[in-house]
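Case study 2.
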Amino acid sequence: MSLKITSVKSFAFLGFLSVAFNASADIYYSNTDAWAESLSYASKEDEASDKIKELRKLIAKAKKTGVNTLKEETALRTAEIFMGYATWDENNVDANVKHFSLVTRYKKEPEKYAKLLPDFERQEIIEMMNSSIAELDAVMKGELKRLPTPVVDWTKVKVDKDMLVYEGKPVFLADWTWKPRIKEYIEYHGDLDGFFLTNGNVINDKGDISPKVLKELQERDDGSIGFVFLNHSNFPKWAEKKIRQ
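Prediction:
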């Protein structure tokens, strides 16, 4: 799988990942078995890769028995994406040092955290794969009952008063905000569209919107559903000048 990785994407995930760092900034292992298993690998990358392969094989086996594996397929794709992020972070430590320097919690030792990040991401992948493997195995053995998972066709979701409706039923559509709209990301992580509007797009006191912005909005493909993100933090220059007059 070929993914285009940027430091911004990886760094945006730090807030979510930071809870797993302990006080000494070492990677935390939930149990001694996981720690012992990790010692048998030359690298976290190898261990994570093997776990991904193990889950992929189990998914194929489960599908043959009619088990719904959408949850595990989503976990698998997430792992594949973040394996790419980890590789980028490993090859761009200097860029991440700059990012860590901007965060109060990490700015005293930005080099330390930038070097820890790749294997930290891989350890999170390993734990996610272990959890997915254990759950799918339990479902296949009949120890867990899995209810049907609806696959939403995002092009057929409609707005009905204050609800988003699909096939006559309200749906809650979660998505990864600001993610690139490429197949690797939207296949399992949602296809919710979005548009950013800021006060600066209002060009006069009549409320007219910038022609450039309107053109961009009108050129969006039909058939997608999404939300408009309104930014209220800035102030149009023309309005500021008018107030000062």
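Residues 77 and 107 are 32 Å apart (CA to CA).
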